[in-house]
Write a structure and sequence with these properties.
With 263 residues, the chain is an alpha+beta fold. It contains 4 helices and 14 strands.
């Protein structure tokens, strides 16, 4: 046999025999709408609090920007996000008490305070309009279900390795893609009122305390992408409000947010 053919023969043998190839997990043969709903609820409700250190990359079509982050979250909607620039310099701290959003900017020794939808913040810096109050629970592993699930029309499609559940009400839709025997949510697509749609993809699952959590999340909305990569994380360690406190100097000034409609 020609020795140059040996690697090709060996490769073909490995493919045929399955050696060295990790088999993809399959979904349960009796997967159903109720089982997927139970899995989504279970994965979401298992998270009481979350801490993670990593990087976030925002690409809004004008180029990619990457920052370091320290993220802490307490269910249902309180969080603190510290954003670091080059050399670990603190760029901003973002905190939410569930009702309002506060952003402290050390370079300006000033802060912004808005409603949790951050609409006012978006007027100052449109590139930050990524729905942080919506994304924070998702980044922590809290997966939303429609508010009035009983009014939704539910459908399911299943394949060998994946299944998809769609929940529709009027022109709004939630779609969940789940994978493997535990029906782990790997994708979520949402359309609100037939208008704005966004998606989330979760990958690189690993141990995060007692739970399996994704180390990489990718959010897409209106042509923008926000990617989060956690280098380390922990779940359900008993975080308290003190862990989310946003400390600012006493002389920090409240910054005015310009309103384009007033011009």
């Amino acid at each position: 046999m020609n020795t140059t053919s040996l690697p090709w023969c060996l490769g073909a043998f490995l493919v045929v025999s399955g050696c060295g190839v990790k088999p993809q997990p399959v979904v349960p043969s009796d997967v159903s709408i109720d089982r997927i709903l139970a899995a989504v609820r279970g994965q979401s409700e298992a998270v009481r609090d979350f801490s993670g250190v990593g990087k976030v990359t925002l690409n809004d079509g004008g180029g990619a920007r990457t920052s370091g982050i320290i993220f802490r979250f307490i269910r249902p909607d309180r969080f603190k996000l510290d954003i670091r620039g080059f050399g670990g310099v603190e760029v901003a701290s973002v905190g939410s008490d569930g009702d309002s959003l506060t952003v402290y900017i050390p370079l300006m020794n000033g802060y912004l305070r808005t409603g949790k939808d951050a609409a006012a913040l978006a007027r100052l810096a449109p590139q930050l309009d990524v729905g942080i109050s919506l994304l924070a629970p998702l980044a922590a592993g809290v997966i939303p279900l429609p508010g009035e699930l009983e009014r939704c029309f539910l459908t399911m499609r299943a394949w060998k390795h994946e299944a998809e559940l769609a929940a529709r009400e009027g022109d709004s839709e939630f779609r969940y893609l789940v994978r493997g025997p535990d029906l782990r949510v790997v994708e979520l697509h949402m359309t609100e009122g037939g208008g704005t749609s966004w998606s989330m993809r979760r990958s690189e699952f690993g141990s995060c305390g007692p739970l399996a959590a994704p180390r990489t999340l990718r959010f897409e909305r209106d042509g923008r992408t926000l990617s989060v990569r956690f280098a380390s994380c922990s779940v359900n360690t008993g975080l308290t409000g003190a862990d989310l406190r946003l400390d600012m100097p006493e002389d920090a000034e409240r910054l005015a947010i310009p309103n384009p409609a007033a011009r």
